[in-house]
Specification:
The protein is of the alpha+beta class. Helix content is 23%, strand content 30%. It has 6 helices and 18 strands. Strands 9, 10, 11, 12, 13, 14, 15, 16, 17 and 18 form a 10-stranded antiparallel beta sheet that branches. Helix 4 links the parallel strand 5 and strand 6. The longest helix has 26 residues. The protein is elongated.
Length: 366
C-alpha cells in the first residue's frame, strides 16, 4: 500500500477517534442528577445524597419581584434556577422553553428564578436587563448576581445552567448548556407530582410536553471570538500582527491574508479588557468563519454595513436584526443577529463601521 494511502487512512481514523472523544467529553457536561434516587421502605425518597440549593447571595437588584416577595414565593415550591446572561446566545435560545414552562406550571407549584450573572460590565445595568426581560417575555423573578456571588455559591462555571430543586430544597437535576428540553420538562412534572403527594394536594398535570423547534447547531463551526484582551487570554483569535496592547489605541492595517477562525480589525481601535472601541472616524472588521449563524455583541451607537465575500450581505443570509439591505444601526448594548442561513458554510465577513465610540465585544456562531 502506498504511503500516501496509508497516511490518508490514518488521518481519517484520527478524525473519527477525535469526534468520538469530543462527543464523550461534551456528553459528560450534559444532564446529570445530583445523586442516585433511593426509596425507603415506607416509599419516601432518601435524599441524604442530594445537596441543598444554596441561598441567593450578593443580589444587586430584584426584577419582577422584591426580596420579601421572593422569599415567600420560594416556600414549598419546586424551583428551577436558570443561570444566564442576556447577551449570551446560548442562554437566549433556552428562554422560549423556560418562559413556556413558567406559563404552564407556575400554578402547579413551579417557581422559576432567573439568576442573571453578567459576563460584561454593561450587563450589570438593571435598565439593560429590564429591556432584555421585556424583549423575551420573562415574567418570572430575575435576580441580578452582579458580583457572581450566587454563581460561586452554586459552584457554577457555565452559561446557561439549569438546576431544579424539589419542594424541600434538594437539587435533583442539573443541566449545562442548551438542549435536553424534554428531559428537563419531565423532571419538572415528576417533582411537581412528588410535591403534590407530599403536601396532600391534587394536581392534574398535562403530560404533553412543550413543543418548540430546537435550534440545530453546526457541529464544526467557528468558536466564539473575543475582542477584549482579558477575555482573549490563552486564545489565538486576533489575526492582526499588531496584536493586543492593553488600554492603548492601536492602528490596525489591512491584512495581507485572512485565516479561518480569526478576526482582523482595521483602523484605530482602543484595546479594552472586554472589548475594542473604534477611535478613528471609520473602521472595519474582517474574519473568515464557518457557521450558519453569526451574532455580534456590541455597545454604544454604531452604523454598520455588512459584506459577505466582498459583496453587500444578500437577503437570503440576512439575520433577524438586519434592518435595510446590508445595513444595521445598533444603539442598545447587547446581542445582534446579523447572519442567518439554512446551511453551514465558509465565508469572509466584513463589517464597515462609521461611528467613533462603537464597541464590539464578541462574535458568536451557530
Amino acid at each position: 500500500m502506498k504511503s500516501e494511502i496509508k497516511t490518508s487512512i490514518m488521518f481519517g481514523v484520527g478524525i473519527v477517534v477525535a469526534v468520538i472523544i469530543l462527543s464523550t467529553v461534551f456528553s459528560s457536561l450534559d444532564t446529570k442528577p445530583s445523586a442516585t434516587i433511593i426509596e425507603n421502605l415506607d416509599g419516601t425518597i432518601d435524599k441524604s445524597g442530594f445537596k441543598k440549593a444554596p441561598d441567593l447571595v450578593g443580589i444587586a437588584h430584584y426584577l419582577n419581584t422584591t426580596p420579601e416577595k421572593l422569599k415567600e414565593q420560594m416556600k414549598d415550591k419546586v424551583i428551577l434556577y436558570d443561570i444566564w446572561t442576556y447577551s449570551c446566545i446560548n442562554c437566549v435560545r433556552t428562554l422560549p422553553y423556560i418562559t413556556a414552562w413558567n406559563e404552564k406550571y407556575s400554578d402547579e407549584g413551579l417557581l422559576i428564578i432567573g439568576i442573571h450573572s453578567p459576563e460584561f460590565e454593561f450587563e450589570k445595568d438593571p435598565n439593560n436587563v429590564k429591556m432584555a426581560i421585556d424583549k423575551h417575555g420573562i415574567s418570572y423573578p430575575v435576580v441580578m448576581d452582579n458580583e457572581m456571588e450566587t454563581w460561586k455559591a452554586f459552584e457554577n462555571r457555565y452559561w446557561p445552567r439549569k438546576y431544579i430543586a424539589d419542594h424541600e430544597g434538594y437539587i435533583r437535576y442539573d443541566h449545562i448548556g442548551e438542549g435536553a428540553y424534554q428531559e428537563t420538562e419531565k423532571i419538572i412534572q415528576e417533582l411537581l407530582e412528588e410535591r403534590a403527594q407530599s403536601l396532600g394536594m391534587q394536581i392534574a398535570t398535562d403530560k404533553a410536553l412543550v413543543n418548540i423547534e430546537e435550534f440545530e447547531h453546526t457541529i464544526f463551526r467557528t468558536p466564539e471570538l473575543y475582542f477584549g484582551y482579558k477575555f482573549a487570554q490563552g486564545r489565538n483569535q486576533l489575526g492582526s500582527g499588531e496584536g493586543f496592547v492593553k488600554e492603548q489605541t492601536v492602528s490596525y492595517n489591512e491584512p495581507e491574508k485572512i485565516d479561518l477562525h480569526k478576526f482582523y480589525p482595521i483602523g484605530d481601535w482602543k484595546n479594552l479588557q472586554d472589548s475594542m472601541e473604534l477611535v478613528s472616524e471609520t473602521g472595519s472588521i474582517k474574519l473568515q468563519f464557518n457557521a450558519k449563524q453569526v451574532n455580534i455583541v456590541t455597545a454604544n451607537y454604531g452604523e454598520l454595513e455588512i459584506f459577505l465575500d466582498g459583496k453587500p450581505l444578500p437577503s437570503q443570509h440576512a439575520g433577524k436584526d438586519m434592518q435595510t439591505g446590508n445595513k444595521i444601526t445598533v444603539s442598545e448594548p447587547g446581542l445582534y443577529n446579523i447572519i442567518e442561513s439554512n446551511d453551514s458554510s465558509t465565508h469572509v465577513l466584513e463589517i464597515k463601521v462609521r461611528s467613533p465610540g462603537f464597541q464590539i465585544f464578541t462574535f458568536t456562531f451557530g
